[in-house]
Specification:
about 350 residues, 6-stranded mixed sheet, 5-stranded antiparallel sheet, 10 helices, about 25% helix
């Protein structure tokens, strides 16, 4: 339970328990400080993120818990009385209403007010258009304009970029980040995309299986996940178990599979860890580069090659399954194919260790 002082420093206190018959139950606590900020609810599909958002909006009734906004109890307050703006995943624009009518649907805004909101979101030039005539990015901005017309004190955005194609998503993401900064309204954004989290978020809550596993600033969560599920959720390609064989001068030697690697000593008495290595931190070389400052030079064999966006994902059997992300040019220069013998090179500092309490 939060102290009186902590409650006073928080805009939103949401302790949510929602149970569904025969489905995943959700238990999550969300804390948002006063002032403009964007909180990302992050995790894979089915983690419970949208359920948390719908509970805060009042669209789902809590099984147990509480929702306090700026000292006001929202727990049993009907949705229409909560000063929120909810942007649905599919934008939910009315196809039979023009843009201006969509924006003004939420209230009795004057034409001037509608034009002002539309201008802020750069859709003032399409006010007389139908939703079907708009691009994906324009539809999102119109939907957000309609939300803002209610003058909300809290924005709730459910996967706001998922309806867009990849080419449009990057552009609209940057626009949305700028809009959220300019509005000065606290926002909660549901996303499963790590680029969204890093671009939009001031803090993020990582969810899996209906639970919040980690809370923190996005760069810190991505750099230092505290659970193997978080590591997988934030895109760490290699997550394997290992055991410390020896510690010396701030360095730990670990047994992993049938090989060994070096990591920075995490301290403490634990011996068993989840070993996390990002693919972009692994360099591939045909021969062992003795002059390299990297402590880990693992000999292995390429077991799989696949496209990963602009990069190539190379899976290596190095005594355990290790993934490297390399450029297509590097793939060609190294003449990589299944069965190619290769050295995987990475620094000790690139190895992140999570204590394995399950062993």
């Amino acid at each position: 339970m939060d102290s009186i002082e902590e409650c006073g420093s928080l805009l939103l206190i949401a302790d949510i328990e929602k149970r569904f018959k025969g489905r995943l139950s959700v238990e999550a606590s969300v804390r948002i400080p006063h002032g403009p900020s964007t909180t990302i609810l992050f995790g894979p599909s089915g983690a419970g993120k949208t359920t948390v958002l719908r509970c805060i909006a009042g669209l789902e009734k809590l099984t147990a818990g509480r929702i306090i906004f700026n000292g006001q109890d929202w727990t049993n307050m009907p949705p229409h009385k909560r000063p929120i703006g909810y942007l649905f995943q599919d934008y939910a624009l009315f196809p039979h209403l023009r843009v201006s009518e969509n924006i003004g649907y939420a209230g009795k805004q004057s034409r001037e007010s509608i034009k002002s909101i539309a201008s802020m979101l750069k859709v003032d030039d399409v006010l007389d258009h139908w939703p079907s005539e708009l691009s994906g990015g324009q539809q999102q901005r119109v939907a957000l304009a309609r939300v803002l017309a209610r003058e909300p004190r809290l924005l709730l955005l459910d996967e706001p970029l998922s309806a867009l194609d990849a080419a449009t998503r990057d552009h609209v993401r940057a626009e949305l980040a700028q809009v959220l900064r300019n509005l000065g309204i606290p926002a909660i954004v549901v996303s499963h995309d790590w680029v969204d989290a890093l671009t939009l978020g001031d803090q993020m809550l990582v969810m899996s299986g209906g639970r919040v596993l980690q809370v923190g600033a996005p760069p810190e969560v991505f750099k230092r996940p505290q659970h193997p599920e978080v590591a997988s959720a934030v895109g760490v390609e290699t997550v394997v178990t290992g055991r410390i064989r020896r510690r010396e001068a701030g360095v730990a030697l670990l047994d992993i599979g049938s090989t060994q690697l070096v990591a920075a000593d995490p301290g403490g008495d634990a011996l068993d860890f989840y070993v996390c290595i990002r693919g972009e931190d692994v360099t591939l070389e045909k021969g062992r580069a003795e002059q390299s400052s990297a402590r880990n030079h693992l000999r292995g064999t390429v077991s799989q090659i696949s496209v990963a966006g602009v990069l190539t994902k190379v899976t290596i059997d190095a005594g355990f399954e290790l993934v490297a992300l390399v450029t297509r040019q590097a793939t060609a220069d190294l003449e990589l194919s299944t069965g190619t013998e290769i050295f995987a090179v990475f620094k000790a500092s690139a190895v992140h260790l999570i204590p394995n309490a399950r062993i």
